[in-house]
Amino acid sequence: MLVTPKEGDEPLRVALPAEVLMSTPSMEMALRRLALVPGAKALPHHKIREERLVVGPLLERVTPQPRPEAVAAAAGGEQVVSVRVTIEGDGHVSYVDPVSGPMMLMPSVMEAVREWKFGASTLGKDAIQTEADLTIKFRPKR
User: Fold this and answer.
1) Number of domains within the chain
2) Which domain holds residue 110?
3) Does 42 map to a domain?
4) Which of the residues 76, 112, 135, 137 could staple to 64 if both were Cys, CB 3.0 to 4.6 A apart?
């Protein structure tokens, strides 16, 4: 349960703990979800509006498959790619925004993440949009 902001106020950003989705010798994926809680109309008599926030879990994940030459061209040790994912209330990914990392690895990450599916996210009875910060570490083969 959380107290929603007033109508007209900036949305409340609720950051959930990061979770490691996958860790192998060649790759690690970590995800941090963010819920954007919009303002709501005030209740009569200055009552505080409390609503239940449900952030839909990751249901389906496609693992990025960068071309070996892209990983090799990124040269050196571990390569880190970060993207910001916008998830609609029904759980589909509507947008993937590159944040940082080698541009040679970005297309495979963005293509894979566009296929991810999440459970529905709601505030009270209303569907809400959420975001996720995804970090993928590509490790060289030893």
Assistant:
1) 1
2) 2-63+77-138
3) yes
4) 112
Question: Does residue 71 lie in a domain region?
Answer: no
Q: In sequence order, what are the beta bridge partners of 137?
A: 28, 80
Let me know if residue 58 belongs to a domain: yes
Q: Measured on CA atoms in the order 36, 39, 40, 43, is the torsion positive or negative?
A: positive
Kindly state whether residue 9 falls inside one of the protein's structural domains.
Answer: yes
Instruction: Specify whether the CB–CB gap between 52 and 124 falls below 8 A.
Output: yes
pLDDT tens sequence across 13-70: 788 999 999 999 889 999 999 987 776 655 555 555 677 889 999 999 999 988 766 6
The 3-state secondary structure of the chain, one letter per residue = CEECCECCCCCEEEECCCEEEEECCCEEEEEEEEEEECCECCCHHHCCCEECEECCCEEECCCCCCCHHHHHHCCCCCEEEEEEEEECCCCEEEEEEEEECCCCCHHHHHHHHCCCEECCCEECCEECCEEEEEEEEECCCC
Ramachandran assignment for 101, one of left (phi > 0), alpha (psi -120 to 50 degrees), beta (any other):
left
Among candidate residues 71, 61, 59, the one with its CA nearest the CA of residue 106? 71
